[in-house]
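User: Just a sanity check before I run the rest of the batch. Below are the structure tokens for the first item. I only need the designed sequence back.
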């Protein structure tokens, strides 16, 4: 027997309708690629989203067609989020930090019908346009005065295009399992693969994300989205912001420490989210300007994910900014939230080391995500916080396979998705990431967690960033090599650093050598690019070899 409740589909268009109806005057503040700050409201955003939907119709974009974007966080990108998906087309957010050949590969693979781009990317678009076979129109996301002088076929101006359209549009109703957006993984090996989200998966993920034990945002908050809207739907935050009508601050391409700091201060941001590398830029700015008092920002919480939060980062946010750190673990394939770190009531009586240890775990399972860790043979391992194995996840916002079947069938017999990560889970359900399976260092048959050693190294006051990689060793198979960027104006020697680590990690985890570098390579989503480092240091002569 079925229940007798209304079977209303869960559609993304309902989010913008809600925000415009119940929070019409709440602001959306964007720092545009052109420079100035732009202000509009959720009420106006509905009109703009509907103009986008009408514009798509005029361009011949039908339901199910892919609409590409190469764009920063701004009101224009937000109008595409709601206008494209709301109309039944699929928003394909392209990561502009990918290599140009990967960009044209994915635009062709997705068969994007039209491409919207910020003027920052005009030279890139001009270069790639001849290779983008399916794109029938290129729309520069700017006004008439800032139109780029580039030679691409059917070049249109976003603000002119919208101005020509009516803001009257009735959102279509369709099956909630319809695809809504598409995002390719950055593919450090092989071609990027497409993750195709649905309206249903997006809406369920949004509801989960707003719960108090996850990000817990409400209409009383001001959210600044530093995580890019081209990376896993900015962790779903644009949808969450609309669902509760928060004031939204979008920094555009201005992600340097100074710009982020000033926008946070001027707009009274209370919650912000981003990967560790952007926070490091903010810290560098604060270091370089000792007169600043980051507590003046009034930021209450920061969401951090994409890479591990180091103890130094956690303590700096708590002590210097007065902000709580909410770590999350996830991936493009998981929408992206898999686990979120929030404390349980029983932790209230903890302090010092015991508390820090829990705060540095990636987080606990949220409703909707089933977790398991397994050994090499696929056998489930205990949740004792010690046993570590391959992490698999299952749930209504976890991908079931890649766009166009790339990579074949990916789920195990129980329907779990293998994440490629290695983790422990403790009896309270807190997951702690040991490493990406391919980054773990295999020394004498045992595993060394590069994440753990990096975290400890980053606690040294002279270390700005650290990376650990495995280098071939004749006796131990692999041994760790530590690469370090020193903090501006600080000095430390190899010996002093090894001494510092010596007291804090197992003896056999101690790096065999330290190399001081001026920069470390990162992926398009801000992670250390270990494949490149391993290649670069493949023949490094370890003193112990
Ligand atoms: P990419 O496109 O670069 O793969 P994803 O965001 O999908 O970008 O990357 C997901 C991976 O990032 C995870 O599999 C995990 O290895 C890493 N990751 C995400 N969150 C965390 C975290 N809080 N701590 C450590 N690693 C993390």
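Assistant: Here's the designed sequence for the first item:
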């Amino acid at each position: 027997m079925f229940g007798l409740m209304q079977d209303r589909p869960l559609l993304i268009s309902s989010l913008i309708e809600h925000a415009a109806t119940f929070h019409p005057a709440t602001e959306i503040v964007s720092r545009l690629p052109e420079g100035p700050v732009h202000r509009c409201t959720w009420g106006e955003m509905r009109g703009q989203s509907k103009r986008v939907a009408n514009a798509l119709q005029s361009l011949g974009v039908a339901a199910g067609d892919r609409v590409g974007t190469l764009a920063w966080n701004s009101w224009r990108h937000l109008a595409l989020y709601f206008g494209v998906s709301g109309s039944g087309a699929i928003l394909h957010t392209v990561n502009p930090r990918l290599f140009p050949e990967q960009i044209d590969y994915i635009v062709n693979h997705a068969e994007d019908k039209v491409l919207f781009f910020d003027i920052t990317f005009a030279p890139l678009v001009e270069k790639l346009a001849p290779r983008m076979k399916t794109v029938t129109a290129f729309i520069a996301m700017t006004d008439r005065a800032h139109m780029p002088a580039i030679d691409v076929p059917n070049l249109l101006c976003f603000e002119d295009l919208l101005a020509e359209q009516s803001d009257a549009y009735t959102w279509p109703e369709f099956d909630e399992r319809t695809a809504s957006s598409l995002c390719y993984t950055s593919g450090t090996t092989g071609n990027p693969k497409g993750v195709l989200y649905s309206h249903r998966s997006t809406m369920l993920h949004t509801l989960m994300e707003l719960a108090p034990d996850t990000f817990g945002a409400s209409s009383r908050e001001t959210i600044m989205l530093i995580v890019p809207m081209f990376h896993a739907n900015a962790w779903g935050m644009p949808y969450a912001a609309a669902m509760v009508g928060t004031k939204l601050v979008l920094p555009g391409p201005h992600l340097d420490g100074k710009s982020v700091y000033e926008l946070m201060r001027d707009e009274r941001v209370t919650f912000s989210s981003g990967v560790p590398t952007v926070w490091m830029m903010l810290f560098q700015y604060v270091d370089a300007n000792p007169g600043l008092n980051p507590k003046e920002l009034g930021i209450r919480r920061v969401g951090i994910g994409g890479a591990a939060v180091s103890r130094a980062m956690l303590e700096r946010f708590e002590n210097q900014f007065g902000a709580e750190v909410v770590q999350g673990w996830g991936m493009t394939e998981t929408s992206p939230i898999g686990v979120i770190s929030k404390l349980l009531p029983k932790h209230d009586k903890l302090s010092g080391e015991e508390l820090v240890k829990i705060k540095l775990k990636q987080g606990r399972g949220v409703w909707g995500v089933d977790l398991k860790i397994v050994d090499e043979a696929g056998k489930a391992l205990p949740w004792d916080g010690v046993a570590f194995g391959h992490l698999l996840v299952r749930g209504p916002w976890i991908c079931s396979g890649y766009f166009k079947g790339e990579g074949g069938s990916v789920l195990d017999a129980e329907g779990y998705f293998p994440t490629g990560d290695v983790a422990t889970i403790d009896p309270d359900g807190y997951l702690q990431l040991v490493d990406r399976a391919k980054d773990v260092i295999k020394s004498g048959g045992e595993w060394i967690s590069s994440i753990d050693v990096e975290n400890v190294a980053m606690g040294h006051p002279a270390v700005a960033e650290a990376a650990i990689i495995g280098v071939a060793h004749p006796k131990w198979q692999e041994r760790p090599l530590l690469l370090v960027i020193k903090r501006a104006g600080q000095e430390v020697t190899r010996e002093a650093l090894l001494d510092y680590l010596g007291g804090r990690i197992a003896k056999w985890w101690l790096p065999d050598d330290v190399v001081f570098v001026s920069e470390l390579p990162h992926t398009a989503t801000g992670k250390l690019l270990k494949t490149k480092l391993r290649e670069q240091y493949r023949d490094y002569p370890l003193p112990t070899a």
